[in-house]
Amino acid sequence: MSSAASRQFASARFREERTVDWLELEQRILEIERGRARTLSDEDLLELPVLYRAALSSLSVARETSLDADLVAYLEALCARAYFVLYGVQPPLRRRIAAFFLSGWPLAMRSIARETLIAVLMMALGAVAAYCLVASDPSWYHSIVPEGLAGGRGPQSSAAELRQGLYDGGGSGLLGAFATYLFTHNAQISLMCFALGFAFGVPTLLLLVYNGCILGAFMAVFASKGLALPLSAWLAIHGTTELFAIAIAGAAGIRIGMALAFPGKLSRTAATAKAGRTAAFAMIGVVLMLAVAGVLEGVGRQVITSDVIRVAIGGTALLGWLAYFYLIPVRGEALDG
Amino acid sequence: MAEVRTASGKGHDQDRNRRTFVTPEGVDLKLDIATVGERIGAFMMDLVLIVLTLVLFTIALLFILAGTGAVLAQALIMVWLLGFFALRNGYFAAFELGPRAATPGKRLMKMRVVSRDGARLRGHQIVARNAMRELELFLPLSFLGYQSAQGMASFATGLFGLLWTGIFAFFPFFNRDRLRVGDLIAGTWVVRMPRRTLSNSVAARVVSEEARYSFSDAQLSVYGEFELQKLEEVLRRNDEYSMIVVARTIRERLGMEDDGGGDHAFLEAYYTALCQRLERGMLFGKRKKDKYQR
Fold first, then answer.
1. Statement to judge: residues B176 and B74 lie in one domain
2. Do B152 and B261 belong together in one domain?
3. Which of chain A's termini has less CB crowding within 10 Å, N or C?
4. Do B236 and B186 belong together in one domain?
């Protein structure tokens, strides 16, 4: 009976002999999934690939020799979990952050340089158009600049009122909160600008042009009162960083929209995934830039009221970004997040 | 790294969601794509969690404000704004960057995010797939808000906006792999990752029972693998009523009388004998898929 039973139950014996290893693997995988990889000893970790391969080979054998659906399903689930634990190992966070600043970000920026140029041109186009419109007929101002953003400033304001707006410093003492609000607001807008790129980039382009329009309309009103230079200084201190960041967000969106519309030799999904990689790097950078801009705008601009220093700070920031993105030598490593 | 192909052929639901996923070792892991329903369920749970956290966070800050007066007001506003921003944009990403690559909602629904090429899931992928929520979730919401704020006059505008943004929100319904817009951009997909426990084999327990029943070759060649696995399910469920029905069907088919030995014992014995026979056939490359195969 026993020899007959063992012959009959080849698959049962196969299972009995290996169950210990499977359970062992499952236990270790669970520890790692719970984020307690440290509790495993070096030996345990070194044995992990062995156990994983053993389970994989058990799976292959079980599929070919066993009709126990439960067993096969168990092994499939176990192997899949083990696969993602073993092949999903991330390098340490510190190294990933270093890699982002040393190569990932600048390389992504270089890769979307052409789109960035287009985005900047779009904003410039909007600015020039709105400037000409408002300069020729000030009533355009109200159809371009929304009420909330205008804050009571407009063609009807006197030069003194406008000047006060530029140097007043916001009056209230809530500089920090103001800076934070500006940062979160702008970051949300730029994320939207990026996400809209998925609609073949068209809404992104429109948003960029519109952003430029608001800028141009303001400029026209202030210029008509002889305040063009102070306004430029007022804008420059944070605007060089902020507008640049928005242009980059737009560029990232355009890159995605273009990949979707014209995938080239790649399949459409592969092309968008590839574009998404570059765009995601750029977008992490955009959020960081906007945080810097928020501090410059919320605190720097309110505290510093000298035009020269404002322009100097803004210009330095812009040169700094340009040098970092396009000039410093970067090792051509693979982009890695 | 790992190769991914769609399982060919149109089977029932299970097979349609199954994807070939070959590891570098050359074994196909056969991953299951999560269904839209599961993903909506997970998302709803996450949404509830986010809102709950936000409410608690706000209440906590209000308490601090009440305790300290206006001294810390500015700092508290900053904390709240940053907290809201981090929660709205960072909740999903923070959890998906962890070792399980799943938010609490996804974890409850037994799913995880996986890179479509089988390589490890990178940070930029998670950023990309979650930045797109802006388009999928917040844009339709803003149109909804716009419509209710403007009243009937711009009903058409709101409706048009909603329809347009709906295309992005309902993207997973329109493709086979149930990809969100964010998944498409990031090169990821969401798969089922169940945690199974190994239960005892149905056959192993019944060696002693076998003597009572003996099945002829003809009786054992009636059914195939499909029926065997259905029988396994019935035995695992151990539901008396369905066992009575199944046992009667099988007895009729085999032409056997009910010997009063109990349906469970009979089914186990038949399962064991059939399993043995089919597994032996497998060793020689002879497989019988179901009862229709000759």
1. yes
2. no
3. N
4. no
Co-location of B38 and B168 in the same domain: yes
List A residues 113-172 in contact with B (Cβ-Cβ < 8 A): none
Tell which of A28, A72, A83, A274 to mutate to test the B interface (max B CBs under 10 Å): A83
Which residues are CB-neighbours of A278 under 8 A, at least 6 positions away?
A108, A111, A112, A252, A255, A335
List C-alpha distances in Å: A214 to A39, A159, A221, B225.
57, 19, 11, 70
- Taking only the tens of pLDDT, chain A with its 337 residues reads 344 444 455 677 788 888 889 999 999 988 888 877 778 888 888 888 999 999 999 999 888 887 788 888 899 999 999 998 888 877 778 888 888 898 889 999 999 999 999 999 999 999 999 999 988 888 888 888 777 666 667 777 777 777 777 776 554 556 677 778 878 888 888 888 898 888 888 999 998 999 899 889 888 888 888 888 888 888 888 889 999 999 999 999 999 999 999 998 988 888 999 999 999 999 999 999 998 988 888 777 777 878 888 889 999 999 999 999 998 888 765 544 4
Q: Which residue of B has its CA nearest to A74?
A: B196
Give the count of alpha carbons within 13 A of A18, CB side only.
21
Indicate the angle between helix axes A228-261 and A307-322, nearest 10 degrees.
20
For residue B274, give how far its alpha carbon lies from the nearest alpha carbon of chain A (Å): 10
Q: Which residues of A touch B21 (CB under 8 A)?
A: 80
Of B98, B236, B279, the CB nearest to A65: B279
CA distance to partner chain A, nearest, from residue B279 (Å): 6
Q: Which residues contact B113 (CB under 8 A, 6 or more apart)?
A: B96, B101, B102, B106, B121, B126, B129, B188, B189, B190
Of B134, B161, B192, the last residue of a domain is: B192
Cα A155 to Cα A143: distance, rounded to the nearest angstrom: 12
Determine whether the interchain pair B30/A76 forms a contact, defined as Cβ–Cβ distance below 8 Å. Answer: yes
Answer whether residue B288 is part of any domain.
Answer: no
Report the number of distinct structural domains present in chain B. Answer: 2
Q: Is residue A198 within 8 angstroms of chain B, CB to CB?
A: yes
The Cα A85–Cα A79 span in angstroms is 10
